[in-house]
Design brief:
By secondary structure, the chain is α+β, with helices and mostly antiparallel strands. Helix content is 25%, strand content 24%. It has ten helices and 16 strands. The protein binds zinc ion.
């Protein structure tokens, strides 16, 4: 399904006007071209102790099927897994769902969204935060799970790369920071990832509000980091606790849960180190199941949270009601 970008639509409109055929031409806007409607209410609130948590919708990538997507599974296997999880098999649905946690002291954003620079229809985080009564200008802390574009481009202005959250503290893992800011990494990366590393190197090192954290430690009152490497070298998840209640924000540890949780041994092209990513996701999933902790995931079905159970050699996610 070709998805028209905003630029294509503008170009088509200009072309139609130039040809003098404005009236009969039906233009497809990006929102119409997308098959998944945005949620009627683009935010969902829940409590962890005294912390007020809000999942906020930033959009969705309707990823076309690709035989190279999972190294040890076919497109048919992927379609079957999506159907088994109650999802469409027409494409791989990859929503973007940052989490906002108001602790009373801090307003914490978990992953910064796409900034409208990853998929033409995504980038609704800031508007939807406002709709939820949350002021993006009041964010005190941004916890970054890893440096892939859909998690950090929301920190950078399109074109200028200007910092969009100069007054918030940006918390990143040391291993992730070191990997992407090493000038030598550019040559080692596949061609398609080089622009990302260049963009990171022209932004993060110049920012004064980045704090690096290591392994498992308290990164803010009630919030601890959990090392979950593999998806990227320094990927981290977060443990959120208040008043005897807890939750895990898993970032991309489980990526698309219909694929990575049911069959944790599937090694996707999205994981930089497949075997290490599998080890990390099994360890985190086992911990979530043993401790009976609800889990949030950046690419989980809306509203981006649910509960896990062991299911054979994998795990079954029961998503929170949409
Ligand atoms: Zn992601």
């Amino acid at each position: 399904m070709p998805l028209l970008s905003r630029r294509d639509v503008i170009a088509s409109a200009a072309l139609a006007a130039a040809l003098g055929v404005g009236a009969p031409v039906t233009l497809i806007t990006p929102a119409q071209a997308q098959k998944t409607p945005p949620p009627a209410t683009p935010f969902r609130r829940f409590a962890v102790g005294t912390f007020e948590c809000t999942a906020v919708y930033d959009g969705i990538w309707e990823k076309p099927h690709d035989p190279a997507f999972i190294k040890n599974a076919s497109v048919d296997d992927v379609k079957r897994a999506l159907r088994a999880a109650g999802q469409t098999d027409e494409f791989v649905p990859i929503p973007f769902i940052p989490l906002v946690v108001s602790t009373g002291r801090d307003l914490v954003l978990f992953d910064a969204g796409t900034g409208g620079q990853v998929q033409p229809t995504a980038g609704t985080l800031l508007d939807n935060m406002k709709e939820a009564g949350l002021d993006p200008g009041k964010i005190t802390t941004i916890m970054i799970s890893h440096f892939h574009p859909d998690h950090i481009f929301g920190l950078m202005e399109k074109g200028s790369n200007a910092a969009l959250f100069p007054n918030a503290e940006i918390v990143v893992s040391t291993a992730e920071y070191k990997f992407w800011t090493d000038p030598a990494v550019i040559e080692k990366l596949p061609e398609a990832r080089r622009p990302l590393a260049k963009r990171i190197q022209s932004t993060f090192p110049a920012w004064k509000n980045v704090r690096q954290v290591d392994g498992e430690m308290e990164v803010a009152p009630g919030i601890r980091s959990i090392a979950t490497p593999g998806h990227t070298p320094g990927h981290i998840a977060f443990h959120i606790a208040s008043g005897g209640e807890q939750m895990i924000y898993s970032g991309d540890t489980f990526y698309q849960p219909a694929l990575s949780l049911r069959t944790p041994h599937w090694h996707g092209s999205f994981d930089q180190d497949g075997p290490l990513a599998e080890k990390s996701r099994r360890a985190l999933a086992d911990r979530i199941v043993a401790d009976k902790v609800p889990v949030a995931g950046y690419h989980f079905p809306w509203p981006g949270a649910g509960v896990l159970e062991k299911d054979g050699s994998g795990y079954a996610l029961t998503p929170a009601k949409a």
